[in-house]
Amino acid sequence: xxxxxxxxxxxxxxxxxxxxxxxxxxxxxxxxxxxxxxxxxxxxxxxxxxxxxxxxxxxxxxxxxxxxxxxxxxxxxxxxxxxxxxxxxxxxxxxxxxxxxxxxxxxxxxxxxxxxxxxxxxxxxxxxxxxxxxxxxxxxxxxxxxxxxxxxxxxxxxxxxxxxxxxxxxxxxxxxxxxxxxxxxxxxxxxxxxxxxxxxxxxxxxxxxxxxxxxxx
Length: 217
Hints:
The protein is an alpha/beta fold. It is about 30% helix and about 35% strand. Helix 1 (about 15-20) runs antiparallel to helix 2 (about 30-50) and helix 2 (about 30-50) crosses helix 3 (about 85-95). Keywords: Glycosyltransferase, Transferase.
């Protein structure tokens, strides 16, 4: 499995991530969402490099031009709700993409233990397609695993790109175990070292969904 960690090189993405982590800045929910969106745009651009391309003859007002354009129409799939700004960033660039949505949430058994529940899925057929599966945070990796299993009921994609802003080292190791090695690429803005007792990423940034859309009950 190919793993791309954007934090290993210095780019503007680092600034967006720094602002998302900063407790004094992240309370501005509009700015927080926009920074996730901008990271999605950067990732979409980079993932576009890995797609197959084909030549297309374009008629201009003066003559014909030959341009290379993507030969595939990817499916952008998002785990609700924190994944929505990341999804927007992707479709800002992949504006011809198909879209899929999965709800995955933690149902707590007690303060420190939970199960992942899937309640909703809307997706086109996925057989033979390029699937880009996005979620802002990869904590344990379980939500991503179960979302992928739910999407497989719609068909088997040819290749899977997993895109996340922050992943824990534990989640990366879990993804490596449960996703098909030969046809999965993992893209992360950064990989953080650990999870706390409540399975939150450390240092992380807190609850991305709450920071995007307000606290839930």
